[in-house]
Automatic annotation (TrEMBL):
PROSITE patterns: GUANYLATE_CYCLASE_2, HAMP. It comes from the Bacteria. This is Adenylate cyclase. InterPro entries: A/G_cyclase (IPR001054), Adenylyl/Guanylyl_Cyclase_3/4 (IPR050697), HAMP_dom (IPR003660), Nucleotide_cyclase (IPR029787). Belongs to the adenylyl cyclase class-3 family. It is found in: Cell envelope. Residues 304-438 form the Guanylate cyclase domain. Coiled coil: none annotated. GO terms for biological process: cAMP biosynthetic process; intracellular signal transduction. It comes from Aquella oligotrophica.
């Protein structure tokens, strides 16, 4: 058998296998993207509903257990509004309801507390009816978390993507669970169409390959060499490489796909570089290593927040031109960010002349409180060194003082914002408390203040000093504050 014939047969087999492999990967990735997007949407709907519902109405309804009560109708109306708003072409919420755990049962059952369906509908679940799906998805094991099963749920009503979000009272006590069912039959149909389109594409490409493969076999070796050379350069890290094959065949298509992949790698590398501006190299390396095991989409967890601010910055800035102010600030921030990264902190944002820093995210940090306080101490010392440096350089700038407030507690962490713009940040009472504590450094005449929760974690590692109980704006109870003994 001639080499060209063997080459031709090999070409057909290779292209056939390659196309099937690419189709398989494409189908899997497309399916994963669709499911992840829909799961994110349904989780968002459930979480928004859990926040929106009137907690006092839920408490009253749990006591009366009356579906003719005003509370029932008000909650039902709220759920219907959320349901109707989320019945769109891209997402179709079929059912939304409120579940109540039966505390006296041993089998972890839930009952329907409120169903958004119209009362006369065949799909309506009256108050007190057992929610069988809650046991199927093991909802009891995820009572205090926003939860969505990874697989479709199929029952007598159809196939669904579901999500559940706990509803908490104002004092943080669990009340009930919001359930959202996203109609998924059309999604499955779309996935089946992907298979059909893939098979059609494969058949057509195979026919073209058989028809013209004999005449194109001479060009195969040259094209493969070009592909091999380009991929080798990309593998060596040269992301500026572009593979040019103008034969308008599978090799050309593959070259284009590789070029698109290279663009994607360039964008990924740029994103990593941008993210590295907010976290230390240690954290960045861990994020890349953990990959899918790291959650950046939103979760409630314990973190330590640090807020810092330059004292009397407005007065200082009035003495200099805007260009000088920006130059001094940039040098100040560069020094502070280096300290933050050195202690595994994450720079959330700059707030004028202040900073918001998080510890314990996105990676767990057992010593987050210690790292936060060490950062504060090093920042205060760093500012003193920076002031001395400026004066040694002959810069006539007043002595800079900063205030640092630290608080440890629960906060919601994740990418927060809109589809067009979002940022990885923290929200919640812990964030507000940390900011208020920083403001109290002025009144207590100390550069560093931290809460009792932070102090308890470091009391055996650093010498601390009790600064008394102080009122925090927006909080009914006073908070115990501490500072480092070596500062005084």
């Amino acid at each position: 058998m001639k080499y060209r014939t063997k080459n031709y047969i090999t070409l057909i087999l290779s292209i056939s296998i390659s196309i099937l492999f690419c189709l398989g990967i494409g189908y899997y990735q497309t399916k994963k993207i669709i499911l992840d997007e829909l799961r994110s949407e349904v989780i968002s709907v459930a979480a928004d509903a859990a926040i929106t519902l009137d907690k006092s109405d839920i408490l009253k309804l749990q006591q009366t257990h009356n579906d003719n009560s005003i509370e029932y109708k008000q909650i039902q109306q709220q759920l219907r509004q959320i349901r109707d708003v989320n019945r769109r072409s891209d997402i179709y919420v079929k059912f939304i309801y409120l579940l109540n755990p039966l505390q006296d049962r041993q089998n972890s059952q839930y009952e329907y507390l409120v169903d958004a369906e119209e009362t006369g509908s065949k799909d309506y679940s009256p108050i007190g009816q057992i929610a069988e799906e809650a046991s199927t998805v093991k909802l009891k094991e995820h009572l205090n978390e926003i939860y969505s099963p990874e697989e479709f749920i199929t029952d007598a009503w159809g196939t669904w993507l579901t999500a559940y979000a706990p509803v908490y009272s104002k004092n943080g006590k669990y009340l009930a669970t919001v359930g959202v069912n996203l109609y998924a039959n059309h999604v499955i149909a779309r996935m089946h169409k992907l298979i059909d389109y893939g098979l059609i594409s494969f058949s057509f490409t195979l026919a073209i390959t058989i028809l013209f493969g004999w005449f194109l076999s001479k060009q195969q070796v040259s094209a493969l060499e070009t592909l091999h050379s380009g991929v080798k350069k990309i593998g060596a890290g040269d992301l500026t490489t572009k593979i040019d094959i103008n034969s308008n065949d599978e090799f050309s298509y593959l070259a284009n796909e590789i070029n698109q992949m290279t663009i994607g790698l360039q964008q990924r590398e740029k994103m990593q570089q941008n993210f590295a501006r907010y976290v230390s190299k240690h954290v960045m390396d861990s994020i890349i290593k953990n990959g899918d095991d790291l959650t950046l989409t939103g979760e409630k967890r314990k973190i330590t927040l640090l807020f810092s601010d330059i004292r009397q910055f407005t007065h200082i800035s009035e003495q200099y031109t805007p260009e000088q102010v920006v130059r001094y600030l940039n040098e100040y921030f560069s020094a502070m960010v280096e300290i933050i990264f050195r202690n595994n902190g994450v720079l959330d944002k700059f707030i004028g002349d202040g900073m918001m820093v998080e510890f314990g995210v996105p990676l767990e940090d057992e010593e987050q409180e210690l790292n936060a306080v060490k950062t504060a101490l090093e920042m205060v010392q760093g500012v003193e060194e920076l002031t001395k440096k400026w004066r040694n350089q002959g810069k006539n700038i007043p002595e800079i003082k900063i205030g640092v407030g630290i608080h440890t507690g629960l906060a919601v962490i994740g990418n927060i914002g809109s589809e067009k713009r979002s940022e990885y940040t923290a929200i919640g009472d812990t964030v507000n408390s940390a900011s208020r504590i920083e403001q109290l450094t002025k009144e207590l005449h100390t550069p560093i203040l931290f809460s009792e929760k932070t102090a308890l974690a470091i009391k055996d590692k650093m010498k601390i000093k009790f600064m008394g109980e102080q009122e925090i704006r927006g909080k009914a109870d006073k908070i115990k504050l501490y500072t480092l003994e070596e500062l005084n």
